[in-house]
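Is sulfoacetic acid placement plausible here? Inputs below.
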Amino acid sequence: MIQNEYLQKWIEEMRTLCQPDSVQIITGTDEENQQLIQKLVDKKTFIPLKKRQNSYLARSNVDDVARVEDRTFICSNIKDDAGPTNNWAPPDEMRKKMEGLFKGSMRGRTMYVVPYCMGPLKSPWSRVACTITDSAYVVVNMRMMTRIGDPALQMLGNNDFVKCLHSVGKPLEKGQQDSTWPCNPKDTYIVHFPEKKEVWSFGSGYGGNALLNKKCFALRLATSMGRKEGWMAEHMLIIGVTNPQGEKKYFTGAFPSACGKTNLAMLTPTLPGWKVECVGDDIAWMHWGDDGRLWAINPEAGFFGVASGTSPKTNINALKTIEKNAFFANVALTEDGDVWWEGLTDVPPKHLIDWKGKDWTPESKEKAAHPNSRFTVSAKQCPVLDPNFEAPQGVPISGIIFGGRRSTTVPLLRQALSWQHGVFLGAGTSSETTAAAKGAVGELRHDPFSMLPFCGYNMADYFAFWLQQEKPERKMPPIFFVNWFLKDKDGKFIWPGFGDNIQAIKWMWDRIDNKKEAEKTALGFLPKKEEFPRGDELFAIRKEEWQKECDDLQNYFKTFGQKMPKELWDELGKLKVAFF
Ligand code: SAT
Ligand code: MN
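Reply from A.M.:
I modeled the complex. C-alpha cells:
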C-alpha cells in the first residue's frame, strides 16, 4: 500500500478531479503487465504479432502520430523564464484550463498510478516520479522505458516527487464502445509547471506526448531541476567505444529527434578491432565527479526508437533488440503476422496492411509505415548494451559530440577550439526538421544543442549554464561537431554514415589523446582532407554559405535579447571576421 503522504493526497485529488471508474496502483509485476497487455488486446489496441514472441502492434489515430510542439507549454511563474523558444501562458490561467479539461476526463476508465524511477535504482543521480494516466498503453510502455512500481516507491520513501498527469481525453459514457486509440487531438495540451515539478498532458496517446517520463520529465523538467542543483539533462546518446588495443572511452552525442541517435548508439564499426557499446540512445543526465570528470547516466530503461529506416545495414543491433518482447506503433503488418517498414528490406513485401489498417501493395502511393513509426523495447535486450548501463555513478565522458541534419555548409567533422567555442557550436546548431514532430519535414530550423523542443527554461540561460560549467578544477571534455547528412549535386548523401561513422569517432579519439594533428580554422580544428574518402567535398568550406550562416545566427541570437551571453556574441564576432 502507498505510505507516502504526498502521493496519497495527490491520488485523492486526481481521483476527485478526473472521476475514473476505478484506481489501480501499479506495482510492476509480470502478472500485472500481462493483464494490462491482455486488456489492450481485448480492446484491439494491441494486435499480437504471430511471428514475434510477446510482441504487439498498435495503430494510432491518424491525427496522433508525433509530438505536438505548438501545444507544448512551459508555464513558469515568470514569462521570461520560459524564454522565446517556448510557448508560455500564465500558470494560474493554464492550470484552470487544464483542470477544466481533466474534470471528469477519466469517466468510464481506470486511473493507473505509476510510480517510477528515472535512472538506475541505486544511483544518487536518479529521480523518482509518478505518472497518473488513464491509458493502459502508457503503463506497459513505461514498464519498458523506466523502472516502475514498488522498487520506485521504496526509493521514494516519504519524499515529494515529480507529478505527471496524463489523460487521453476521451471519457466513456455508460455502454459507450471505446475506440482502439482513444485521443482528443483538438484539445491536446502538454503543459509543464517547472516550479511545481508537474506535467499535465491531455488528449494524446503517442510517444513523447504521453510517456511523460521521457521528454516532459527527463528533459524539460530535469533541465530546470538540474540548473538549480548543478547537473545537466541533455538530449544525448551515451556510448562506450573500445579501440583495438582494448582501451575504452565514453562519448555523449546530441542530435535532433530522428537524426540517427539510436543508430549511432548501437553502431557496428566498419573499422576492424573497434567496438561500440550502448549506454543510452536519447537522454543523458550528467554531473561532475569528485575527480573533476564529467559523468553521465541514462535515466531511461528502454528505447523508443524510430522504426522507419531501421535495417540490417543501418542498425542490426536494434533489429536484434526488438526480436521479441517489443511494442510497435504505426508500422505495417505483413501477411504472416510480422512487422515491416520502409527501409527494412530492399524489396517490399507484395502485400501489407499499412499503418492506417488498409491494404497496401508496392504500387501504393502512400508509405506503408508512418515515417515516425516507433518501437518500444527494454534496453536489457540490446546485444551491445554497455556493462556499465546500470552503474550508479554513470560513466566518465571523454568527448561530447553535437550534430544536426544539414545537406550543405556544415563539414563532416571538426573539433571546437575551446569549451566556449564548443558551447557556441551547440548554440548555433541548425537542423532540417523530421517526422518526429508534427509539421513540415525538411525545413531548416535552429535547434540549439538539439534541445529546442526540450529545454524547460529560457534557452539563453541554458547557454549561460553551459558556459558556467567550465572551471579550472574540472577536466573539460573536448567538444566535436559532426554532420553525417551532406549531399552532393545529385542530392545523394556524400558520407556513407552508420558503421562508417566510427572513422569520425576514431579521429576524435586520436584528438583526445593528442595523437593527431589538425588544421586550425575559424570553424574549429578540421581533419586533413586526405584522411577521409571524398574529403574535398566533406570538408569544403564555402565563403558565401558561411556568410549566410553568420547572418542567420546573428538574427537568431538577437531573439534572446539581453540574456544572450556575451561570450557567444564574441564567438560569432570571430566567425564573422574570418568570412567577411
Ligand atoms: O518525443 S518522442 O519521444 O516522441 C520522440 C522524439 O522526438 O525523440
Ligand atoms: Mn529524442
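Short version: The chain has a mean pLDDT of 98.
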